[in-house]
Amino acid sequence: MAKADPVRWGILGAAGIASSAFLPALAEAGGGRPTIVGARDGGRASRWATVFGVDRGVEGYERVLADPEIEAVYVPLPNSLHAGWTIAALEAGKAVFCEKPLCASVDETERVLAVAAAAPRPLWEAFVFPFHEQTRRVRALIGDEAIGEPREIWSRFHFDLDDPGDIRMSEALGGGATQDVGCYSIRLARLLFGVEPVLGGATADAVWTTGVDEELWGTLPFGGDRRMQFSCGFRSTYDTFARVIGPAGEIRMTNPFHPGSDDTFELVSDGEVVEREPAAPNGERSFTSAIRHVHRVLRDEEEPAHLAVDEALGNATAIEAILAAARDEPVVRGPAR
Q1: Distance spanning both ends of the chain, measured CA to CA
Q2: Is 178 found in the same domain as 122?
Q3: What is the average per-residue pLDDT within 233-252?
Q4: Is 246 inside a domain boundary?
Q5: What percentage of the chain reaches a pLDDT higher than 90?
Q6: Rounded Cα–Cα distance for residues 263 and 279 (Å)
Q7: Domain limits at 294?
Q8: H or E segment to which residue 322 belongs
C-alpha cells in the first residue's frame, strides 16, 4: 500500500458517538477513510453507512476485522464489550482506537494490555484531550511554574441523561457516571500531576440507580499535599470545567475535555486573570488531533504517544478505587502501576 493512501477505518457498531464525534473528526483530520461499519443488524449497518458516509455496512463485527483493507478499528461498543472486541481487533493485526473506558474492570484491562503489548499495531484508549493544543499549553504553563507546583485539581463533568434505558444506566453493560465521564477527571489529574494516585486514600459518595452510580463526587490523593476533587453524573445540565491550583496561582479551563469555539482557559494570579486564551484556537473538533496522530503513526510520520499500554491501567485502578470507596468497600489493590 502506498504511503500516501488513506488509512482505512472499520467501525464496530453503529453508535451515536461514531456518527456525532468520530466521523466528522475523521473527515476533518484528513488522511483516513471510513471504509466499513459492522452492526448486529446488517440492514441497519447499511442504512447507517449511507447516511453517515461510510463506504459500506455489514452484519456482524467479525466481517470488519476480517477485511484485509482495514488498518484501524474504532470501538464505540458498550463498555462490557470493549475487552473482547479490542483483543479480537488487535489479534487481527489492526490498530485500535477504543472508546473510554478501555475496559469495564481492572482484570479486563490487564488482559487487553497483555495482548496489546505483543500486537503488531498500537492501541489507544480514546481520551482525546491529551492531544489538544489546550492541554499542551496548560502543561507548558505548569512546566514553566506559572502557578508553582500544582497542589489541587478541581474538576466536574455532568450532563442530563434523560433515558433510563440508556446503556450507560446498565450495570451489566459496565455503565455508570464514573466510567462514562468521571474517568475524564481522573485521566486529567494523572496527566497534569505526572504521578499515579494513592489508591488507598480515595474517598467518594454516590447516588446509585439500577446498580450504577448515577452521580458521584470524590477525592483522590496524589502524594504529598496533592489531591484531586471531582464530581460527575447524569442528573444535571451539561457542565464541565477544571481548575488547577498551585501556590502562585491557578489555571481555569471551561472545558478541559471537549473544548469548543466558546471555551477558554485562563491563568490567574492574586485573584486576577493575567492571561486568557481560546481553548480551541483553530476551531477543530475535539477528536481531530487524536485521529490525525493515529494516521501519522500508521504512516511512520510520528512516534506514538499516549498509548493504552502506558496509560490505561492507571485509570482503571483509580476508577476501581473510587467506586469501592463509594460503596464503602476496602480497596484491594496497591498503588496504581
Answers
A1: 38
A2: no
A3: 97
A4: yes
A5: 96
A6: 5
A7: 7-128+289-307
A8: helix 308-326
Neighbour tally for 3: CB within 10 Å: 7
- Note whether residue 2 is domain-resident: no
pLDDT tens per residue across span 5-29: 999 999 999 999 999 999 999 999 9
Catalytic (active site) residue 94: no
- Indicate whether 124 and 176 sit together in one domain: no
Same domain? For 170 and 270 the reply is yes
What's the grid cell of residue 275? 492571561
Which three-class secondary structure state does DSSP give residue 173?
coil
Long-range pairs for 215-219 at CB < 8 Å and ≥24 separation?
A: 215/158, 215/177, 216/176, 216/177, 216/178, 216/182, 216/322, 216/326, 218/322, 218/325, 218/326
3-state helix/strand/coil string of 29-74: HCCEEEEEEEECCHHHHHHHHHHHCCCEEEECCHHHHHCCCCCEEE
Residue with cell 482505512: 8
Residue 262: exposure state from Cβ atoms within 10 A (0-12, 13-18, ≥19) = exposed
pLDDT tier at 4, thresholds 50, 70, 90: low
What's the DSSP call for residue 6? Answer: P
Residue 285 has pLDDT above 50, yes or no: yes
Judge if 112 and 231 occupy the same domain.
no
Q: How many CB atoms lie within 10 A of CB 137?
A: 17
- Reading across the β-sheet that carries 72-75, which strands appear in turn? 56-59, 32-39, 7-12, 72-75, 95-98, 123-125
Structural domains counted in the chain: 2
- Which residue type sits at 182? G
Contact 259, 280 (CB under 8 A): yes
Residues 171 and 223 in one domain: yes
The two most distant CA atoms of the chain are separated, in Å, by 60
Catalytically annotated residue among 8, 82, 94, 100: 100
CATH number of the domain enclosing 149:
3.30.360.10
Residue 5 backbone zone (phi > 0: left; psi -120 to 50: alpha; other: beta): beta
Residue-level pLDDT at 329:
86
List the grid coordinates of 284: 477543530
CA distance 325 to 203: 5
